[in-house]
Design a protein that fits this description.
Chain A: Keywords: Signal. Chain A: It comes from Azospirillum melinis. The complex is a heterodimer of chains A (351) and B (588). Chain A is of the alpha/beta class and 351 residues long. Chain A folds into two domains: 168 residues, 3-Layer(aba) Sandwich (D-Maltodextrin-Binding Protein, domain 2); 141 residues, Periplasmic binding protein-like II (D-Maltodextrin-Binding Protein, domain 2), CATH 3.40.190.10. In chain A, 44% of the residues lie in helices and 17% in strands. In chain A, helix 4 runs antiparallel to helix 12 and helix 7 crosses helix 8. Chain A is globular, with a radius of gyration of 21 Å. Chain B has a single domain, classed as MetI-like (MetI-like fold, Orthogonal Bundle), CATH 1.10.3720. Helix content of chain B is 71%, strand content 0%. The N terminus and C terminus of chain B are likely disordered. The chains are: A alpha/beta (351), B mainly alpha (588). At the A-B interface, helix 1, helix 4, strand 2, helix 5 and helix 6 of A face helix 12, helix 18 and helix 23 of B.
Chain lengths: 351, 588
């Protein structure tokens, strides 16, 4: 019970602080609101009055924070958020297309292939969000026809239990050392897109021999790579491979004994994408939301939730940034086949 | 067998039907129409999908060819059959004796054991699996840690939940409630005259049980065996959590992989479910062959004088055995879940500083989505279960009393949905309910209809096994006194089914509350349910929230069960049984 009152106190304190602050910056606040009012896109979106998001990027909590910030900035638009796993959301959209239903205004998933496929069948609308100019250069203009854009940056790294591990492995290669035998937990590429990306990248870097030796380490293979965190916190294993960077840091911030180790042979970077379906029932609201993703507000929320931000002028949590770490991103035209091959090799060599 | 046939088959199968009254025609028509819309149409889509190519959308038999030819696809089928058969054996092996103890003997705390068994039932399988991972993971499981503490550090881990045995164990203990509820309600509703007769003729407790009670309960035992088997085939959560780490694939985890591929192989997944239908069809066929030759009709009307078998010195040992189930399926796993839910950050372990009600606060007040989801879950399960039991009972009545030509076909139709794993069924429902004549997408009706259809087989087989125990004599008496078919059903059959219907309602209500995969493509932001929220939290790795929401879901359902059961008991079973017993001229 003391806990609730402590929270209550903190909240009151926060409110008071916010009141003081807002007094100070009232001028800017009003100016911003006025600017929003004048925005013709907002006016058009407001006329539509609603927005439906189908999102798999970011976990529930971060997504809800983004939704709430949008509602606060653009009152008068009712926002419906459907947060499910990326592939589920995509399959749902495909089912809707097949059955002639149009519900989704903004799609956000973690698989580039979703967008290349939707583009191929003419299901995406073009839109060039002006605020995307602040994106890191490497991720600007992903699609020359502006049908999809970066919606999330996700990193796959190593995580570990600081109390139980003297010196954590600092590279993917180091995971093959004898000392980690029977100590590693990871996700399955057949269930987790992030782990599938990791398998593709590792095979490109070190070939199938890596997978063979990785299999000999007897890793515990869960479904999602989130399970690595669970295994480490429970004490089932002490080191996680193909592990979620942001989510591990969130758990660390919550007070759990866990930390990340960014591999010197590259963190694997996977992009979440976003696009607007051609039949979106509220296209203007969808555009407004897409542009809002690149606002300072959203990047602040991302930073607070330990996600890489979508603006170069907003630092990541713990003072990290993209240029501080070495990263690698799978690219190429035949990723689907490479993923399928990677999963097959994994089944043969790891389990 | 000691079962007495009271009537010739011919007379039983053909109720006197001078004319087809309007009400009957209307009801038959409505039932057929509902079955067509709710079951035939979605299943038709699954079948249609199975005959199409995922990439091109063209007609093909290739999906079936792939299933038959590929060893990689056969292995999961075999594993699933092993898991299902073992689950059903455990469910019946534990559930039936437990039901007998609770319904027929003077075992202490019978009511408590009933409630606790329902509690196990409320638990979504992935929650049960989570609880057991906390308890019996080889390195970190609390039971293993306790063992090492007792037996010394080098003692190793006696339990490994990540194994086929572990999965069978968890599937089994969470399926026991099916067989327990079905068989105990059959025992509750069973007329006791035959048992009395056996006792009068000098049979001992054991002989009476073997030659009278068990054969009379056979329809319920067999129905529950089949349902448990299907449960073992179609569960996703347990194998996903417990078998993925050991690399043992089963059908449902394989299906999840098909959906995870790019492009998703949804049509192949549909074809992959058809062998399950074959296996289950074979089970139902065997049931018909076995039960078909026998008559389970007992003299109708009931005397529920509460004849109890005295366990004597066995009372307390029996109680100990009866409590093992709740211990394994409720107390231990929920203790683990409760502890995690009460920590601020569970990785820190147990300490006073880490104790917190924050996650409960968060689930109840801090999260607007939870409110809607709780209300939705309750409303959909209530309406879905009601629709499901109404339809299932009517179909069972039509089939058992052969009220129309081709009645058994209706029964077969009513049995199909549950066999198809939820993730595939969800696609069928999507296709069937988003276009004319049922444009339900985005409305609560979509989920209510889908839930009712999915669990129709439970309501149908439960209704059927109750009806098999009720003789048609009273119905015929009513008919010959001039009552119509509808009136006969309402004033004779329905009251006789009484308490059995109530337990049937719970048998459907609870699975709906905890159902996850059928809803996956059907929920919308406005029609979200509890389980999807819990799964999202799990997906996001927020274990404290998962545990807190699971405990809440359990408490809410338990509360409802606790409120509803005595209510149902007062208005349903007892009163009507006394009334019908009097009506039947049997002194109560």
């Amino acid at each position: 019970m003391t806990d609730i009152s402590r929270r209550g106190l903190l909240k009151t304190g926060g409110l008071a602080g916010a009141a003081l602050l807002s007094g100070g910056i009232a001028g800017t606040g009003f100016a911003r609101l006025a600017a929003a009012q004048d925005d013709p896109l907002y006016a058009a979106a407001r006329k539509e009055g609603a927005l439906t998001l189908y999102w798999g990027s970011y976990e529930q909590q971060t997504m809800e924070a983004i939704r709430d910030a949008f509602k606060a900035k653009y009152p008068g638009i009712e926002v419906q958020l459907l947060r499910q796993a990326s592939q589920t959301v995509y399959t749902r959209l495909r089912l809707e297309l097949q059955n002639g239903v149009a519900e989704c205004d903004s799609l956000g998933t973690t698989n580039l292939l979703h967008y290349t496929e939707l583009k191929k069948i003419g299901a995406l609308a073009a839109y060039d969000p002006p605020d995307a100019a602040m994106l890191p250069a490497a991720f600007k203009g992903l699609d020359k026809d502006t049908m999809y854009h970066v919606g999330a940056i996700s990193l796959t790294s190593i995580n570990y239990a600081p109390g139980k591990v003297g010196a954590p492995p600092t590279s993917w290669m180091a995971l093959l050392e004898d000392q980690w035998k029977g100590k590693i937990t990871t996700g399955s590429p057949a269930f987790s897109g992030d782990v599938a990306s990791w398998v593709v990248a590792i095979r490109r870097k070190y070939g199938d021999d890596y997978l063979r030796r990785f299999g000999q380490q007897k890793p515990k293979v869960g479904q999602s790579n989130v399970d690595t965190v669970t295994d480490i916190l429970a004490g089932e294993r002490v080191v996680g491979s193909g592990a979620p960077f942001s989510y591990t840091l969130t758990q660390k911030a919550a007070g759990n004994p866990i930390d990340v180790s960014v591999p010197t042979d590259d963190a694997i970077l996977n992009l979440g994408l976003t696009g607007i379906p051609v039949k979106a029932p509220h296209p203007n609201a969808a555009r407004l939301f897409t542009n809002f993703l690149y606002s300072k507000e959203v990047s602040d929320i991302l930073s607070k939730n330990y996600w890489p931000t979508l603006r170069t002028d907003v630092a990541w949590a713990e003072g990290r940034s993209l240029d501080q770490l070495k990263w690698y991103r799978n690219s190429g035209d035949d990723l689907a086949a490479e993923v399928a091959e990677g999963i097959a090799k994994w089944k043969e060599l790891v389990r | 067998m000691g079962v007495i046939s009271t009537s010739s088959r011919d007379a039983e199968s053909r109720p006197v039907m001078a004319r087809v009254p309007l009400v009957k025609a209307a009801v038959l028509g409505a039932v057929i129409l509902l079955l067509a819309l709710l079951v035939v149409q979605p299943f038709g889509w699954v079948l249609f999908n199975s005959l199409h190519d995922d990439a091109t959308g063209a007609w093909t038999l290739n999906n079936y060819a792939r299933v038959v030819r590929s060893a990689e696809l056969i292995e999961p089928l075999v594993n699933s059959l092993i898991l299902a058969a073992a689950t059903a054996l455990i469910a019946v092996g534990i559930g039936v004796p437990l039901a007998w103890l609770v319904s027929r003997t003077d075992l202490p705390f019978r009511r408590t054991i009933r409630v606790l068994t329902l509690t196990a039932f409320v638990t979504p399988s992935f929650i049960g699996a989570t609880g057991w991972i906390l308890l019996a993971a080889p390195n970190s499981g609390w039971l293993n840690t306790a063992w090492r503490w007792l037996a010394g550090e080098g003692a190793g881990a006696p339990l490994n939940i990540y194994s086929m045995a572990g999965a069978i164990f968890v599937c089994g203990i969470y399926t026991v409630p099916y067989s327990f509820t079905m068989v105990s309600s059959a025992l509750d509703e069973m007329a006791v005259e035959l048992e009395d007769a056996a006792t009068t003729l000098g049979c001992g407790v054991l002989r009476t049980m073997v030659s009278i009670t068990i054969p009379l309960a056979a329809p319920a035992v067999i129905a529950s065996f089949i349902l448990s088997f299907i449960q073992g085939l179609t569960l996703f959560g347990v194998p996903a959590f417990l078998l993925t780490p050991t690399g043992i694939p089963v059908v449902t985890t394989k299906l999840a992989e098909f959906y995870q591929l790019f492009p998703p192989e949804i049509y192949l997944a549909a074809a992959y479910c058809m062998p399950l239908l074959l296996v289950t069809g074979a089970l139902f066929w065997m049931r018909r062959r076995y039960l078909g030759r026998k008559q389970y009709v007992t003299i109708s009307g009931k005397t529920r004088a509460g004849r109890q078998i005295r366990l004597g010195g066995w009372r307390w040992p029996a109680l100990f055995l009866a409590l093992l189930m709740p211990l394994l399926s409720v107390f231990l796993p929920y203790a683990a879940l409760l502890l995690v839910s009460l920590t601020r950050a569970w990785g820190q372990g147990l300490s006073w500083e880490n104790l917190s009600l924050y996650w409960y606060w968060w689930a109840i007040f801090g999260n607007s989505e939870t409110h809607t989801a709780i209300v939705n879950s309750l409303v959909y399960s209530t309406l879905g279960a009601t629709l499901c039991v109404a339809l299932g009972t009517l179909v069972a009545y039509i089939v058992e009393r052969r009220l129309m030509v081709g009645a058994s076909l209706l029964g077969a139709v009513a049995t199909v949905p549950i066999v198809i794993p939820g993730i595939v069924l969800s696609v069928g429902f999507f296709a069937a309910y988003t276009r004319a004549p049922l444009n339900l997408y985005g409305t609560p009706l979509l989920l209510i209809a889908a839930f009712a259809a999915t669990f129709l087989p439970i309501a149908y087989s439960h209704g059927g096994s109750i009806l098999k125990g009720i003789g048609p004599e009273l119905e015929r008496a009513a008919r010959s006194l001039g009552a119509g078919e509808a009136r006969t059903f309402l004033s004779i059959t329905l009251p006789l089914m009484g308490g059995g219907l109530v337990s049937g309602w719970f048998l459907v209500f609870i699975p709906i509350i905890r159902e996850l995969s059928v809803a996956v493509f059907l929920i919308t932001p406005k029609t979200n349910v509890m389980t999807t929220l819990i799964y999202n939290a799990k997906d996001g790795g927020n274990y404290e929230a998962v545990c807190a929401m699971s405990v809440l879901l359990l408490l809410i359902t338990l509360f409802l069960v606790a409120v509803a059961r005595p209510l149902a008991g007062l208005t349903g079973a007892r009163r009507t049984s006394r009334k019908t017993a009097t009506a039947a001229g049997v002194p109560s």
